[in-house]
């Protein structure tokens, strides 16, 4: 298990690296995270939904993703409620307090005439996975030292106890306070749980590693746990990220270079699946940035309305903050506008929610740029798809609630495109179509699948260089 001193310390990326390393070393690994909270999700081959991070880790391991790798997914609807996705299917919404409240029923969700025991569900999923793969690379969630949540924690050390896992604690030195966060995370565990922590990985180090030699020894002395590695911060390896916190590190301004196409992704409050834009981000012809600044939106060459977990709420906010008017105005001036998933729904004529699936707003007019209307439904569509664009076969996946009154996988009008398909912009025919009249140069871009494989190998090489894999294998073989 890769456990963390906090959120965004790099557990997911290190887990992906170990998945690839174990595969390279002749093993048959698979990832596992009992409970995930994220809006970035992915459709499995059998049409179910899991967290994006576990899909990425499965790719690194070279195995098809499956719901057993992430049996419980929480998708926030607001600051207080989340949609609960169990084994890839939504089963209802749950208030955060009810989910975490300190009562014996906190790990139960009432559905129909019976209760669902989340702890049993996630443990059974792990057992099924462990019967097919070895080793299992588990990932914890957030910090392992949230004492107020310990009794009802489904994903960190209680899950490690069930799996009899060796735990590696990942700390982020870049944010500061790594000695306190690592020592405190270990000291606050019960004696039984402390014994499971077999190693420490210091992540995101900047500068000369020799400057931390003394720190490494000090950390081992006070924690009585070996430091298996100090992994330098990297910017030149590209792995899909799960959390929208990473958007704060993205480029956020227009480019003045005439050789670059400015693409503005409208920054929604409930943005989801922002990994849709990773291929465009690495295209040298493109300057892609996230914004809700109306002036930048109107001046961009291409405007993208991304996916969202709450279409109506974000549509209402777009009208309130002026972005809706800016998008319509830019389209009128000849700019290209693209809507993906929830963004596609917003570009239509109306979005209706007669059953209150998303909330209290029953209906709103869309931006009116596409001849389509959408009605929200309780049933969610999750599937992988193949579609035709510019006469070529392309691939992607759908994860959405709501039914639109068209069967077209991609709906096009005058410089406006809408689609439910995530991964739409990972296809070379789509990108070439969008940029052909806007960029003076034609640049061959590596196929996205090949690019990802190369990145997993580079990540594995990076972690191998700085983590003592021999000692890690010794830890695993001692059980």
Please, what is the average pLDDT? 90
Q: Which structural class fits the helix and strand makeup? A: alpha/beta
Helix amount: 25-40%
C-alpha termini separation: 14 Å
- Report the principal-axis shape: globular
Largest beta-sheet details: 6 strands, mixed
Strand order of the largest sheet: 17-15-18-20-26-25
Estimate what percentage of residues fall within beta strands: 25-35%
**Residue ranges: pLDDT <50 for 5 or more in a row?**
102-108, 110-114
Rounded Rg: 23 Å
Number of helices: 16
Number of strands: 26
Can you walk through the features of this model?
This protein has 479 residues and is an alpha/beta fold. It is built from 16 helices and 26 strands. The strands form eight sheets. It has a six-stranded mixed beta sheet with strand order 17-15-18-20-26-25. A four-stranded parallel beta sheet has the order 1-12-13-14, with helices on both faces. The longest helix has 19 residues. About 3% of the residues have low confidence.
């Amino acid at each position: 298990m890769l456990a963390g001193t906090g959120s965004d310390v790099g557990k997911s990326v290190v887990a992906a690296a170990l998945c690839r390393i174990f595969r390279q070393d002749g093993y048959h690994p698979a990832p596992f995270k009992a409970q995930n909270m994220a809006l970035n999700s992915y459709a499995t081959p059998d049409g179910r939904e899991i967290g994006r991070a576990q899909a990425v880790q499965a790719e690194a391991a070279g195995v098809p993703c499956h719901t057993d790798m992430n049996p419980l997914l929480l998708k926030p609807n607001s600051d207080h409620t989340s949609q609960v996705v169990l084994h890839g299917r939504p089963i209802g919404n749950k208030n955060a307090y009810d989910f975490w409240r300190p009562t014996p029923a906190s790990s139960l969700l009432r559905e129909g005439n019976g209760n669902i025991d989340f702890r049993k569900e996630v443990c059974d999923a792990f057992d099924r996975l462990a019967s097919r793969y070895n080793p299992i690379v588990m990932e914890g969630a957030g910090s392992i030292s949230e004492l107020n949540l310990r009794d009802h924690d489904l994903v960190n050390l209680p899950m490690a106890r069930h799996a009899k896992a060796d735990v590696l604690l990942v700390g982020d030195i870049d944010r500061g306070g790594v000695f306190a966060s690592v020592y405190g995370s270990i000291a606050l565990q019960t004696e039984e749980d402390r014994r499971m922590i077999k190693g420490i990985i210091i992540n995101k180090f900047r500068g000369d590693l020799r400057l931390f030699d003394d720190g490494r020894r000090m950390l081992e002395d006070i924690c009585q746990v070996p430091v298996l590695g100090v992994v330098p911060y990297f910017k030149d390896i590209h792995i899909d990220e799960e959390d929208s916190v990473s958007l704060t590190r993205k480029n956020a301004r227009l480019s003045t270079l005439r050789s670059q196409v400015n693409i503005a992704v409208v920054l929604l409050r409930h943005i989801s699946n922002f990994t849709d834009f990773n291929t465009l981000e690495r295209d040298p012809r493109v300057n892609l940035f996230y914004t809700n600044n109306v002036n930048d939106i109107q001046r961009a060459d291409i405007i993208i309305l991304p996916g969202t977990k709450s279409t109506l709420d974000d549509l209402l906010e777009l009208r309130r903050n002026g972005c809706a008017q800016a998008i319509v105005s830019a389209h009128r001036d000849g700019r290209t506008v693209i809507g993906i998933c929830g963004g596609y729904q917003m570009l239509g004529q109306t979005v209706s929610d007669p059953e209150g699936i998303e909330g209290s707003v029953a209906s709103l007019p869309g931006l009116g740029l596409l001849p389509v209307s959408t009605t929200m439904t309780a049933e969610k569509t999750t599937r992988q798809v193949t579609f035709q664009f510019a006469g070529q076969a392309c691939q992607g996946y759908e994860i959405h609630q709501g039914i639109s009154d068209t069967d077209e996988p991609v709906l096009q009008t005058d410089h406006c495109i809408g689609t439910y398909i995530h991964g739409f912009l990972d296809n070379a025919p789509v990108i070439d179509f969008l940029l052909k009249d806007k960029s003076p140069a034609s640049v061959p871009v590596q196929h996205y699948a090949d690019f990802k494989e190369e990145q997993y190998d580079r990540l594995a090489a990076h972690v191998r260089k700085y983590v003592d894999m021999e000692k890690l294998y010794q830890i695993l073989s001692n059980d």
